[in-house]
Specification:
The complex is a heterodimer.
Chain A: H1 2-17, H2 32-35, H3 52-60, E1 73-75, E2 82-84, H4 86-89, E3 119-121, E4 127-129
Antiparallel strand pairs in A: 1-2, 3-4
Chain B: H1 2-20, E1 29-34, E2 39-44, E3 49-54, E4 60-65, E5 70-76, E6 79-84, E7 89-93, E8 99-103, E9 111-117, E10 122-127, E11 132-137, E12 142-146, E13 154-160, E14 165-170, E15 181-186, E16 191-196, E17 198-200, E18 206-208, E19 213-219, E20 222-227, E21 232-237, E22 243-247, E23 259-264, E24 269-274, E25 279-284
Antiparallel strand pairs in B: 1-2, 2-3, 3-4, 5-6, 6-7, 7-8, 9-10, 10-11, 11-12, 13-14, 14-15, 15-16, 17-18, 19-20, 20-21, 21-22, 23-24, 24-25
Classes of the chains: A alpha+beta, B mainly beta.
Chain lengths: ~190, ~290
């Protein structure tokens, strides 16, 4: 009993002293124990689920309890086909500041290369900044094209991450009102 | 020997394909229920359809297109009941796939799972919007809620006609220290039992059996359920709640990734909707089910 208490206190002290990655637990449903456990862990970072995607979707996917429905971003009907999963866009531990000085919401952007700002490893544009400060601003437009949707897009007809293509498509509408996250961001 | 080996692999691959061919990788199977004429019914969230799957080869026989994303599905007396997440209602389809009526107000429910008490003429709905189990007549009249005092976040359910009991999977409320659990109610809504997914065994220790229970069914003195978090099919003792068996890989080698529902087949086999794999996975549980 005393040994167990000593081990517990030692672990708690270490966790307090060691500077860790940001892991502030956003909301009550995202407390550490909701995803991590020291026992029964199947994943490689003491996660409950066998894969992070399954973990996220156990609440946000079909038949999950969350009303914020999500699916992976995929389309196998076009060429080139693609499939982007949760961790490609979201940092599960906390919202990050973006490079413009604001703070992103909805866990959009990862701290790639430890710069402390929200970024995304895009499919064919390398690592890019991402700005997503409210749920209606998925595109930022000129000159940076760093909105949550457009920072990756290079092959879409609209809202690419450069000045190419059309940038006037449905600018008064939120992208997800037609391209829903729960529907793979497809129409 | 070389030929024998080749023949074996061709046969094995053929078998794998036949069991994975329900809808292909692009599908998103959610709930499964017994259907008419040797079929099972599967709600396909992505393809927005109810798929009639042939029990013999698990291939699609036909499908019914739903105007919205289907969740719970159940078939009784020639009628098909579908929980339509997009409409927020339970839709009832008759012969010829004709929509006969809708149960509940539009947008009034997230009908995550459905079950029917044929003898009592009642429909049970696990509603994720109001976090409640709602009871309706088969004509759609609301009767009452079940487990309002005990349930936290019910997600799935099944009705055991032999014991006249309702089994409910509940995610619990971890932030309030309420673990996930399986609840058993009688037909009138009185709680008979609660099987918690984890229990404290000491100041710093606990034992965990399941975390995110989804589809749940009873088989005599056993309870089978799938855990979408852990990716496992579990067999529990109905009385003690102790874990009797756990499976993460089907009899045909498919790993469970986000399993959401299950159906007991005659002979002790179980079909599981393996959502991320986009297929139905079959398990032989004859040794652990009575």
């Amino acid at each position: 009993m005393i040994r167990a208490l000593a081990v517990y206190l030692a672990i708690t002290a270490l966790a307090t002293l060691i500077p860790a990655d940001r892991a502030d637990a956003l909301i009550s449903a995202h407390q550490c124990a909701y995803c991590h456990t020291t026992h029964l862990a199947l994943g490689d970072t003491l996660l409950h689920a066998a894969s992070v995607e399954a973990l996220c979707l156990s609440c946000h996917g079909p038949a999950g309890i969350s009303v914020l429905k999500a699916e992976v971003h995929t389309d196998s009907t076009i060429a080139p086909s693609f499939r982007h999963t949760c961790l490609d866009c979201h940092n599960p531990h906390d919202n990050l500041p973006n490079w413009k000085g604001g703070e992103n919401i909805a866990l959009v952007g990862l701290d790639l290369e430890d710069l402390g700002v929200a970024r995304i490893l895009t499919p064919n544009s390398g690592i890019r900044n991402v700005v997503f400060e409210n749920r209606t601003a998925f595109t930022q437009g000129s000159p940076d094209y760093d909105g949550a949707c457009e920072t990756c897009h290079t092959l879409t007809r609209f809202h690419r991450n450069t000045a190419d293509g059309t940038h006037t498509h449905q600018v008064d509408t939120t992208c997800t009102s037609c391209h829903n996250h729960g529907n793979y961001f497809l129409r | 020997m070389k030929y024998q080996s080749s023949i074996f692999w061709v046969a094995f691959l053929g078998l794998m394909l036949s069991f994975s061919s329900f809808a292909g990788a692009a599908s998103s199977p959610v709930r499964i229920a017994e259907g008419p004429k040797d079929t099972v019914l599967v709600s396909d969230y992505r393809r927005q359809s109810i798929v009639h799957v042939d029990l013999k080869n698990l291939k699609q026989r036909r499908k019914l297109r739903i105007d919205g994303k289907p969740l719970g599905v159940v078939w009784a007396d020639g009628l098909l009941y579908v929980g339509n997440e997009s409409r927020g209602q339970v839709e009832v389809y008759g012969s010829g796939s004709k929509l006969i009526r809708a149960i509940g107000e539009p947008g009034g429910m997230i009908p995550n799972d459905l079950a029917i008490d044929r003898e009592g003429g009642r429909l049970f709905v696990a509603d994720c919007r109001d976090q409640a189990v709602k009871v309706f007549t088969l004509d759609g009249d609301y009767l009452f809620n079940i487990g309002a005092a005990s349930l936290s976040q019910p997600v799935a359910l099944s009705y055991d006609p032999h014991r006249r009991e309702l089994l409910v999977s509940d995610f619990g409320c971890p932030e309030e220290g309420i673990p996930s659990a399986v609840y058993i109610f009688d037909g009138e809504g009185a709680q008979l039992a609660r099987i918690p997914g984890s229990q404290k065994t000491g100041m710093f220790s606990s034992t965990t059996t399941f975390l995110r229970p989804q589809g749940v069914v009873a088989s005599a003195d056993r309870i089978c359920l799938v855990d979408s978090f852990l990716g496992r099919l579990l067999v529990l003792d109905r009385v003690s709640g102790s874990l009797l068996a756990s499976f993460d890989t089907s009899s045909f080698g498919e790993k469970l990734l986000l399993p959401l529902d299950l159906l007991l087949l005659p002979g002790g086999d179980v079909l599981v909707t393996n959502n991320r794999a986009g297929c139905l996975s079959r398990f032989s549980l004859a040794e652990v089910l009575p």
